């Protein structure tokens, strides 16, 4: 991490792996992560933290199961959505997308509760860029 401006386009150009977030900055005890995504992630929930999503490129969908039932939230570039702690969600991007996430350092990409994890989903807490 550095005290210089971060070019997110350049950061995203440094890797090709899908569903494998890279940590581009830290803010207090939070990671700022970028990821390339395509297809579906896995239904999961983060018991103790909200999860912030900002779409940088492409179209991104969050399926959400909450007190309103199951619904889809579609996001375009420049739009954000916060999944509250404990809410089950499944990110997806049928045609591919690039996203930025903001979550506490050490947060697993699949939370504490999740469906079986397919091989294309990275279960780590993010990789330094």
Can you offer a commentary on this structure?
With 129 residues, the chain is mainly β. The chain has one domain: Jelly Rolls. The protein is built from 1 helix and 10 strands. The strands form 2 sheets. Strands 1, 2, 4, 5, 6, 7, 8 and 10 form an 8-stranded mixed β-sheet that branches. Strands 3-9 form a two-stranded antiparallel ribbon. The mean pLDDT is 87.
Rg over C-alpha atoms, rounded to the nearest angstrom: 14 Å
Query: What is the end-to-end distance?
Result: 8 Å
CATH topology: Jelly Rolls
CATH class: Mainly Beta
CATH architecture: Sandwich
CATH superfamily: Jelly Rolls
Number of helices: 1
| Biggest sheet overview | 8 strands, mixed
List its salient traits.
10 strands; mainly beta; two-stranded antiparallel ribbon; 129 residues; Jelly Rolls; 1 helix; eight-stranded mixed β-sheet
In summary, what is this structure?
The chain has one helix and ten strands. The chain is mainly beta and 129 residues long.
SSE map:
Blueprint: H1 8-13, E1 22-27, E2 30-40, E3 44-45, E4 51-58, E5 60-66, E6 69-75, E7 80-83, E8 88-104, E9 113-114, E10 127-128
Parallel strand pairs: 1-10
Antiparallel strand pairs: 1-2, 2-8, 3-9, 4-7, 4-8, 5-6, 5-8
């Amino acid at each position: 991490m550095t005290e210089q401006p971060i070019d997110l386009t350049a950061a995203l150009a440094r890797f090709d792996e899908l569903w494998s977030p890279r940590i581009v900055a830290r803010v207090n005890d939070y990671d700022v992560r970028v990821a390339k995504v395509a297809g579906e992630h896995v239904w999961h929930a983060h018991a103790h933290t909200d999860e912030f999503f900002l779409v940088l490129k492409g179209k991104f969908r969050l399926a959400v199961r909450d007190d309103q039932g199951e619904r889809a939230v579609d996001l375009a570039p420049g739009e954000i959505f916060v999944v509250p702690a404990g809410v089950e969600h499944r990110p997806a991007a049928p045609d591919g997308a690039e996203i930025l996430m903001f979550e506490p350092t050490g947060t697993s990409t699949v939370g504490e509760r999740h469906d079986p994890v397919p091989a294309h989903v990275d279960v780590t807490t993010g990789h330094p860029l």
